[in-house]
Amino acid sequence: MQLLTPAGERVASPEYDPWVGDVDDAQLRDLYRDMVVVRRIDTEATALQRQGELALWPPLLGQEAAQVASARALRSDDFVFTSYRENAVAYCRGAAPVELVSVWRAVTATGWNPYSINMATPQVVIGAQTLHATGYALGIQADGADAVAVAYFGDGATSEGDVSEALVFAAAYSAPVVFFCQNNHWAISEPVTLQTRGSLAARGSGFGIPSMRVDGNDVLAVTAATRIALDRARSGGGPTFIEAVTYRMGPHTTADDPTRYRPPAELDEWRKRDPIVRLEAYLTSRNELPDDFRAEVQAVADSTAAELRAGCIALPDPDPLSIFDHVYADPHPALEQRREWYAHYLDGFEAAP
Amino acid sequence: MQLLTPAGERVASPEYDPWVGDVDDAQLRDLYRDMVVVRRIDTEATALQRQGELALWPPLLGQEAAQVASARALRSDDFVFTSYRENAVAYCRGAAPVELVSVWRAVTATGWNPYSINMATPQVVIGAQTLHATGYALGIQADGADAVAVAYFGDGATSEGDVSEALVFAAAYSAPVVFFCQNNHWAISEPVTLQTRGSLAARGSGFGIPSMRVDGNDVLAVTAATRIALDRARSGGGPTFIEAVTYRMGPHTTADDPTRYRPPAELDEWRKRDPIVRLEAYLTSRNELPDDFRAEVQAVADSTAAELRAGCIALPDPDPLSIFDHVYADPHPALEQRREWYAHYLDGFEAAP
Amino acid sequence: MSTLTLSKAIGAGLRRAMETDPKVVLLGEDIGKLGGVYRITDGLQADFGERRVLDTPLAESAIIGAAVGLAYRGYRPVCEIQFDGFIYPAFDQIVSQVSRMHYRTKGAVRMPITIRVPWGGGIGAAEHHSDSPEAYFTHTAGLRVVACSNPQNAYTMIREAIASDDPVLYFEPKRRYHLKGEVDLEAPLSGQSAGRSQVLVAGTDVTVVAYGALVQTALDAAAAAEREGISIEVIDLLSLSPIDYAPIAQSVRRTGRLVVAHEAALTGGVGAEVCASITERCFEYLEAAPVRVTGHDIPYPPAKAEGHHIPDLDRLLDGIDCALGRPNSRSGMGAGS
Amino acid sequence: MSTLTLSKAIGAGLRRAMETDPKVVLLGEDIGKLGGVYRITDGLQADFGERRVLDTPLAESAIIGAAVGLAYRGYRPVCEIQFDGFIYPAFDQIVSQVSRMHYRTKGAVRMPITIRVPWGGGIGAAEHHSDSPEAYFTHTAGLRVVACSNPQNAYTMIREAIASDDPVLYFEPKRRYHLKGEVDLEAPLSGQSAGRSQVLVAGTDVTVVAYGALVQTALDAAAAAEREGISIEVIDLLSLSPIDYAPIAQSVRRTGRLVVAHEAALTGGVGAEVCASITERCFEYLEAAPVRVTGHDIPYPPAKAEGHHIPDLDRLLDGIDCALGRPNSRSGMGAGS
Ligand SMILES: Cc1ncc(C[n+]2csc(CCOP(=O)(O)OP(=O)(O)O)c2C)c(N)n1
Ligand SMILES: Cc1ncc(C[n+]2csc(CCOP(=O)(O)OP(=O)(O)O)c2C)c(N)n1
Ligand SMILES: [Mg+2]
Ligand SMILES: [Mg+2]
Fold first, then answer.
1. Could you tell me the residue ranges of all domains in chain D?
2. pLDDT of B196-236, one tens digit each?
3. Whole-prediction pTM
4. Does residue C259 contact residue C324 with C-beta atoms inside 8 Å?
5. Taking the mean position of all CA atoms in its chain, how far away is CA D299?
6. Which single residue of A316, A317, C68, C131 could bond C85 by disulfide (Cβ 3.0 to 4.6 Å)?
7. How much distance in Å is there from the Cα of D330 to the middle of ligand 4?
8. CATH assignment of C198-324, given 3.40.50.150, 3.40.50.1370, 3.40.50.300, 3.40.50.920?
């Protein structure tokens, strides 16, 4: 599915247009702003990593449309479970800039309280979160609520047994969950063709789940697909599988060197389909991207980046004894004792001459 | 796909008939004999369990066509990985009757040497063997051989992550493996509709694997499907997924009581599609099931059952110290020492007055 | 007071928990209409409906992973793993998700998940139906691990497990499912009791620590030893993680001798931890090295030979003799080198 | 002799094994073109082809399960698990299949599978990239478990692991990947050496047992203690299952004091087993309770705090003081009750 061509031309679609009928230029400009800001966040975080302020960073460069458009389609009471690369999703859910990087600075286990933005902390174990989303959806169902659980995951993740099991469970119970797969063509050094021969959307269908394949660099297509899926889930229609076809334009993480495995021509090809450029072209063609708006967006991006940087650098190292916090919710005397011992041990150093 | 109706009428199929063109009445009688014998084995083993001679038995009643026709389509150098219910497959591969029950008498970990009949020992962990078959197929591929690995598993198994991962791997490498799923409609007390909304064959397709749904109680259809799959695998075409639709007419195991969960009408319905009755009807309609042949078959079945019973009852209890055998292939002094200690411990009882 | 079997006591505890808290939901294979292969959940789906007692597709990782999501949403899922040997497909979800989510979210997200595991050997079962995987979980921070041993504690502990805001692995000794006993259905719950080991028999010569099915064997051993004039103190761990060492240490300070018994393999089992911890606590009081009476370091053998694998009364008495320095099977064998 | 880093030594060992035996095949995520995230397999796919060095789909259970099938067919698969924390999805295949297949088939089917695990903390990594799961495997009969600690033993032991007809978990201490050392590429293999612990420093006052990354720390501790006039004997376990107790017992009979160190959690770790086993063997020789210096019973913490979790030189020296009864952090704290 494509509603905006790479050149920024609007393609009519009798089937999908109704789903984005209300998306006017103002809304598109909002999406544009989000995308520019998250790209700026991404650049800043990468820079912070290069400067030694972050231990690692997984850039989302190129996946802005897939993440922003899908996240903006959600209601605040929907609940999102993601992998580690969905920083734009977290931004749209309301995470503060510094909350996006604190985990990558290795000073905390989580950047935010999941209940404050209705989004779980990033999941590092590939695919595991798809089951959490499915279970959460069972809870929504039991509550009789009309919220939706959304699972974000990558093309590589589709090979993990957990993802297939999540599809099985979701289908079995018609659970209100949206499986949002960002096919960014790579899982570290492995091309998507190693994970599947056909499309990933076909995978979803095989589990009896309505599935869509959309241009993930097209904000309108992603919006339409996400809305269709959410609507189905809210109205008791069960799960949907969305394959958003996009591209990881950067390295897997800042520790990765894609030149070892990726043909440069491929990247060049995808540069032409840059999601921001595309929306820019469309809005420009409609004279809906005036200079003052661009300037405003740039200002927001810059100030967000500055806030991110300042917040990041100011993040304190964790208190040594905090490593004993929250292992258990109920009291645990043995661990308390260990903490006391360790405090005593540390005190020994301070006491030492 | 169906080539023989439940009433035993031959249905022409331009697509599949060529695959069973050579299956003449003599061959059908052979399949008939196998089915009758394995049903007799099944009955005898169930009786042995009721009499306390076996700890447990998983009957295959109703699945004779699916197992016999597929197993008889294999070459001896193909390698088979099954679950616990494929006793007819083991019989066709050449397992002696007593070898089918020795594990269920709990006196040994395996009934046969896998290399003697090119079939792995039954797998109890649901779905695990599908990965073994896939790995074996990678070995065939690396050897440049044209053998095929075959994985048998149930409808319930399709929900396990391992089975999905096996499909992913098989597709990724175009491995010469056949996934033979016996959809017998139940996984203990759970109907297949809990495991999937659509057909299971659709599941295979979703992984990019050519898939077929066949009447599993129809020896001809099963033969055709298996041959198509084997031919594809041998000629470099990669994996195939076969859903053989059949029915578990008995309990899950002798420990199970299906009246707790299964509508009796369903069983009645499937009795009308009994695979043996069907082939009987077809052969009888062609006057190809003379009384003397039926008598011969009955004699083989009875003598096989007698052999099974005699062999079963004669099986010795395991030697106590044998529990230390084969834990490791290379020497393991610590375990040797433990064995010595335990022998010494046991000797103490004999020495005691 | 009611007389119940251990299995019925668990069922009664589940029912009670479901009545008390609408957030308690059950997930597992065949737990609905069938009531589970051991009928523990018999009647619960009929009474509480399909939304609270979920027959799940055949996928253990998903059972636990879905429970994580339900807990995220404020539920208290109780998962049944059909047999001990089928918990491994869910291992990743248990050790990387269930055990760490509260830590990962700095306490924001609780994981009040109970994982019920019909457990252990001695029932003549097929492969993978007699495993003792408890040590994998006691080595995993963030989990609590308990093992019931009689109808009363089975009833109380399942309720406590469900009431705990932490994830609890609840091990049920299959071969004691039919053990009968008086159960006080109104016995008070204790937030602490999950961590409290219990002295069942007072004694002065040797401290015997057991849990699960072997508690009964330890009681038998105490009776048998008594007839020989040896006084055994029997302690039921009840909680395997954390272990409440106070009663054990007190006991060993008096007896000077310790025997720990379990069905699981010797190497790296719970016995190793108990022996090491008690040696740390009671070194000066020990009159002999603590003794472990355990399964061998072998895969679970064919059931006809299982009596040679898992410790029985004789093996335990032999271990007690060893702790007492009396003639025993290890005498003169050396303990390796 | 060549000077190699530990990581290059493993790569050299893999290459040598592949040259020697055409049945050796490699499986793992990103091990082909990329050469693995740690570049251990760098260049191997280019030289041996895609049929012998398989980049696999992203599925750990399948990597191990496929290796089982390859072993069935007569191959010797070497699997790379990308990071310690990602071995759990394969847990079922490892403990229910790999470890038991030889037993299950009464020796007919061999499982010469090597599972390489980049392992442990201290590298500032994200969650699940610093786990120490070795005790799960040492508790599992049918597996062998080894841990290398320097370039020479890394090279020799990977070759031995691949040559073994048993499955071997091969743990690679990530934070020592860059450790350089002389490697004799022609050093003889020993069918036994996988089970042989090694005395690295002779000493008389305390026996310190370590493995993997902490061997280096133990050597540092021995040097530091020596400056204080304390003589430490350092033993590298090398094999965690089985453990070769002879050198340790001999040492403890002389020193009377034992310290065991590991990064993994205290409870149920390898240290518990070593302490229990050595107490069994050397009870009369022990002058103090064996001491464990280990990670805490917590999930792996954020990396900026990892130095407070995994033992370092000071923690080890503190443990040595404890074993010697010298003033130390535990003095006056009691060991719980
Ligand atoms: C269970 C597990 N195995 C391996 C890894 C290591 N790993 C981290 S990211 C990654 C690739 C993921 O690819 P994909 O799902 O396509 O997501 P993307 O990185 O492209 O966003 C791998 C193999 C992991 N984190 N978890
Ligand atoms: C991993 C695992 N989980 C649970 C079980 C318990 N169990 C044994 S058979 C069975 C049902 C299998 O159903 P299916 O795959 O349809 O095979 P069938 O019994 O119908 O032949 C279950 C749940 C098991 N053996 N392994
Ligand atoms: Mg990707
Ligand atoms: Mg079935």
1. 2-193, 198-324
2. 988 999 999 999 999 999 999 999 999 999 999 999 999 99
3. 0.98
4. no
5. 20
6. C131
7. 58
8. 3.40.50.920
